# Entry
Amino acid sequence: MKLTTHEKTILELIKKHPDIVDNPSSRKLIAQQYGFKEKTLRNRIGDLKKYGALDDLLLRANPLQSFESNYVNDEISMPLLVSIFWNERHLILRNVFIVSLSAIIFSLIMPKTFRSTAVLMHPSSDDQSGILGALSQQMPFGSLMQGGKDESMDFMAILKSRTVMESVIHEFGLIDFYQSDNVERALESLRENVNIEIQEEGTITTSVNVSTGWFHPEEEELNARQMSASMANYFIDQLDAVNKGLKIEKASFQRLFIEKRYRQNIVDLKNAEENFKIFQEDHKMISLPEQTNAAIQAASAIKAQQLASEVQLGVLTKTLNPNHPNVVRLNNEIKELKIKLNEMEYGYNISDQDKLFPSFSEVPELGIQLMRLTREVEIQNTLFTFLTQQYEDAKIQEAKNTPTVQVLDKGKIPELKYKPARARIVIIGFTFSLVISMYYLHFLNRWKKITAN
# Structure
């Protein structure tokens, strides 16, 4: 390649100061020192790059940078790549075969995991059967109290609780199975192999994974299959046992509370009935409305007789002497009738034992007292009926031993492994080895080309 004198001068300058090729500040400084313009120096360097006059020089100064620059700038020829891969096909096939065979062997000897899943129906709440539920049904706005508690989250909490987890660990000897140092480590391993979820349709799934060891025999696979199903079903049994215990405990507390209130109500009802009886005895009151009506009729009769006697007296006083026996008799009769009316109205000069009817002045007060006592007796009677029903219901709930969970699908012994996915492992190994081999040949060919230049 023939260069001009000016280009040779620039080339010698680059040999002394190779950083002027890519460093603008260095290039500007060197240009000023040698009497060049920075633009002129930059253009000549660009021409030398096009001629290839700087490749060998840059390779000696920075081989890696030269390699990257050629890799980025040079065009990749697909026919050339195909030719390279074909010529080195034995290397590619050997690498792919070795890696794929290793992936197959690895997938065959690695631990197998088996999964068994138990499915529970969406739980229905029976909390409204207690005292609050009965109250809400009788209250005008009782529907506002019926919130409808969803027990799904309660089931989830019980299944994930330490109590259930430790019970599973001790039942199946998982400390030794997981080769754990203590219960805490076994708990961590168990939680990693148990999946509890609420599905969109509302069912609750409990899945248990059990893995074999490396280079495992067929018997170990059978034990892992059986163990996964047994653990899934044991989780459901423990859920029912714990939930049942919690409900019985709750029913026991409710029964004790209702029993205490029930016995207090018996005392209150007895006192209310006794006060009502004493009030009736003291005031000789059987039925206040009927007795009042009878008193009014008697008073009306007395008043009518008084008026008749007064009329008769008025007639006699005009014709007879005031000392006449008939006049005296009528005056005495009118006087006694007035006294009797006063007695009936105000209760004057009459003892409580001699009263047959309540005094008219006492009727409002007696009516209020009678109403209050009657109301108290009715309240205590209503409460007694309600508490008796709730007390019997609480005793039934406390003694009830029926299942609290509905199992839709029990855990079955799995016929197929859950993981590993052998086909996926082999495909990944095959693809990885093929791509890496092709990239290796491509970069090796480029490096040889650069070093040869």
In short: Residues 5-60 form one domain. The radius of gyration is 55 Å. The CA atoms of residues 15 and 47 lie 16 Å apart. The chain is about 70% helix and 5% strand.
